[in-house]
Amino acid sequence: MPTSKATIIEAGHTRSAVAKTWPTKPSSGQRQVRGTFNSVPYTFVLTTGKGQGTVTQFYAYVEIGGRVWYIDTGDGFLSEGAAVQFSG
C-alpha angle 10/19/69, rounded to 5°? Predict the structure, then answer.
């Protein structure tokens, strides 16, 4: 599974995140939020999962050139208006 790095900017704070490919983009998630993806307006599909162990993990899905990627957004959902920079 290919991986890459993403940069998330929320409320003036910048952080790094890990992105991985996924077979399909979920048709719906727990939430959808609007923000920007590579400086273009984008609606992110957000989900949660248990991952390895019992820690809940939060993800934002994006599609680039027909490939679906999920970005681990850490300990919470991506916020409305977040900016994500990613090269895939």
Answer: 105
Asked if 35 and 84 count as a contact pair (C-beta separation under 8 A), the reply is yes
CB 7 within 8 A of CB 16: yes
Which region, left, alpha or beta, applies to residue 27 given φ > 0 means left and ψ of -120 to 50 means alpha?
A: alpha
**DSSP state at residue 76:** S
Pair of tokens at residue 87: 């090269």
Q: What is the pTM of this model?
A: 0.84
pLDDT tens-digit profile of 15-59?
999 999 988 888 777 899 999 999 999 999 999 887 666 678 899
DSSP string, 36-59: EETTEEEEEEEEEE--SSS--EEE
